[in-house]
Amino acid sequence: MGNETGTTTSYSVEPVDTDNRIDLYLAERTEETRSRIQSLIREGNVTVNSSKVKTSHKLKAGDTVTLNIPPSEPYLLEPEPMDLPIVYEDSWVIVIDKPPGLVVHPAPGHNRGTLVHGLLYHCKDLAGIGGVLRPGIVHRLDKDTSGLLVAAKNDTAHNFLSGEFKNSKVSKRYLALVHGIPKGKEGTIDLPISRHPVKRKEMAVSDSKGKNALTLWEIKETLGDKFALLTVTIKTGRTHQIRVHMSHTGHPIVGDPVYGHKSGWWKKNTNISKDIYGEIKRQMLHAEYLGFTHPETKKYMNFSSPVPSDMDIVLKKLKSVK
To answer: pTM above 0.70?
Structure first.
């Protein structure tokens, strides 16, 4: 995550965290990975009672832990020509219908070919060129989630849209193909989400340490007795929110490689032929609707995206099963 000015945060160690390692302690309380925390410790950006420590340092009740996260260095991106599916564009914003498989923002292992690289080539006035880690990006979709995404093209638009997302004033609706048939025609999932306590690249429902997360779902269509197509609206924007919430309720997204059923599940639990589940190359999740107030005109704008071809094929095949 971008950090233009740097931050310093202090924590007071509670008795329950006595003998906890400093790296684990901070990884549980921040959005940073454990490896990133360890690097910060080695660089002298973490102190305990004003003294530098090692990554293996054990804490005691009453200790004061200070974490300094220095400003992000400019991330120099080389614009890349890309065939972007543009839904709308003006001098303030651009709306993209992101295809599955496209990473939104550069990250370790994805230093080329991201949506940001394409936007930098297409939009010469995209906000943040010259040093901001997330140029113009105000929200994201997972690599294998398809659908609508808006990016800002100047600083004013970026700040306005960031505030709209933060205050839950942006409307986002998804299509989600899930395992099983949820009880009732619609429902609400109001469960906090945080980093998984063990699998640090994953998220999980967490009553004690999670951030509030609200998901509303409605059955759009049932496909036999094993699958349902839902419309899902999120009122918050937590990482992997829909995927985590649906999995937690026992109805994971079809094709989700992290929170869903593995390939062997299909053979044991359904009569679906291999030619059907062989078509499922990613999580069947699509951002079909996006609505927001335009940062310049202050008029409400909304956009819709049709079901992508790969998801449409799976739906039609499931409907044909007797």
So the answer is: yes
